TrEMBL record:
<dbReference type="GO" id="GO:0003677">
    <property type="term" value="F:DNA binding"/>
</dbReference>
<protein>
    <submittedName>
        <fullName>MmcQ/YjbR family DNA-binding protein</fullName>
    </submittedName>
</protein>
<dbReference type="Pfam" id="PF04237">
    <property type="entry name" value="YjbR"/>
</dbReference>
<dbReference type="InterPro" id="IPR058532">
    <property type="entry name" value="YjbR/MT2646/Rv2570-like"/>
</dbReference>
<dbReference type="InterPro" id="IPR038056">
    <property type="entry name" value="YjbR-like_sf"/>
</dbReference>
<keyword id="KW-0238">DNA-binding</keyword>
<dbReference type="InterPro" id="IPR007351">
    <property type="entry name" value="YjbR"/>
</dbReference>
Length: 117
């Protein structure tokens, strides 16, 4: 997955938005005003920070070398995924979905209803 396909997939999520609140180097994806993914545009290899259930986060880190504790994030709730040949695109999409759903579940009931959740 490259930056464009990552961007397209994140924006395909219901009511997802993108912004650059931390400067021109960091692309942020939100739903309901809360971050579900962010990526640095100036680092190689491409990586993305994703929200994750704490127990699942540890499991993924143990299973995949390319999944690390969230860089500059709460390491209990965020993973940084290095997007390289060791990570299948289907796995990455599942992890983006997981992150998005965690954020949606944390939104107030009225906001969830607006999203149809």
């Amino acid at each position: 997955m490259n930056i464009e396909s990552l961007r397209e997939y994140c924006l395909s999520k219901t009511s997802a938005t993108e912004s650059m609140p931390f400067g021109d180097e960091t692309l942020v994806f939100k739903v309901g005003g809360k971050i579900f993914a962010l990526t640095s545009l100036d680092t190689e290899p491409l990586s993305v920070n994703l929200k994750c259930d704490p127990e699942y986060a540890v499991e993924l880190r143990e299973q995949f070398d390319a999944v690390q504790p969230g860089y500059h994030m709460n390491k209990k709730h965020w993973n940084t995924v290095l997007i390289n040949s060791s990570i299948r695109e289907s796995d990455l999409k599942n992890w983006i979905d997981h992150s998005y759903e965690l954020i949606v579940k944390s939104l107030p009931k009225a906001a969830r209803q607006e999203l149809g959740k």
